[in-house]
Write a structure and sequence with these properties.
Helices cover 38% and strands 15% of the residues. The protein contains nine helices and six strands. It has 232 residues and is an alpha/beta fold. The N and C termini lie far apart (37 Å). Strands 1-6-5-2 form a four-stranded parallel β-sheet. A two-stranded antiparallel sheet has the order 3-4. It is globular. Strand 5, helix 9 and strand 6 form a beta-alpha-beta unit. The structure holds zinc ion (ZN) (2 copies). The site of one zinc ion has 8 residues, from helix 2. One zinc ion (ZN) binds next to helix 3.
Length: 232
Amino acid sequence: MVNTRLRTLRHWLLPESCLLCGGEAEADAPLCRACGGALPVLIHTCPRCAAANASAVSAPCGTCQKRPPAFDRVHALFAYAPPLDWLVHGLKYRGRLDLARFLGHRLADFTLGLATPRPDVILPVPLHVSRLRTRGYNQSLELARYVGARLGIPVDAVGVRRTRATAPQTEMPLAKRRANVRGAFQATRDFAGLRVAIVDDVMTTGSTVSALAQCLRKAGAAEIVAWVVARA
Ligand SMILES: [Zn+2]
Ligand SMILES: [Zn+2]
């Protein structure tokens, strides 16, 4: 409460500028109202993995039909298109942790509109300790903290460990990505009967979320959804 009042006061004294257009940002946000309201949303997506579907048909995409993923559903807030790619990059590589708060709250509010059961626990995608050391923070955990606090759902940052330091996946083809993350996660607790929501910044092919979901499934999770800020 005091924090909120202090932020409001600071904003009134020193309004911050919008990261995208340089105009006056909204209180407690890194963007102005117009830029915050014009972020790219997804329109027709696969009901299972949230990949863009060229047609308006609400059937699972070809990939999900051929090879059903280990997770139950993905819910994506935005499309991974400009300027979302730039914002996610800022959160991930340029230490813009103010974006974790903004995007985390937007993601939390978005999930409130979903007609799905409330998860028991929120699980950020773990980073390997070596990556954590270089980057200094895990952007998924930073997002998850705000999502969890907003929704009143506990965040488990240690329930799954990343046991292998996997190579960056950005330029890898799908089959290679799958092999790259296979067996990279290990549960350190029992998830028996729990509904788990994995939180991540961006989902590209889904290999990472799928590998994590496989690990959660083995640990007994009853339902596994992924809440992601952006879907490529
Ligand atoms: Zn703006
Ligand atoms: Zn799909």
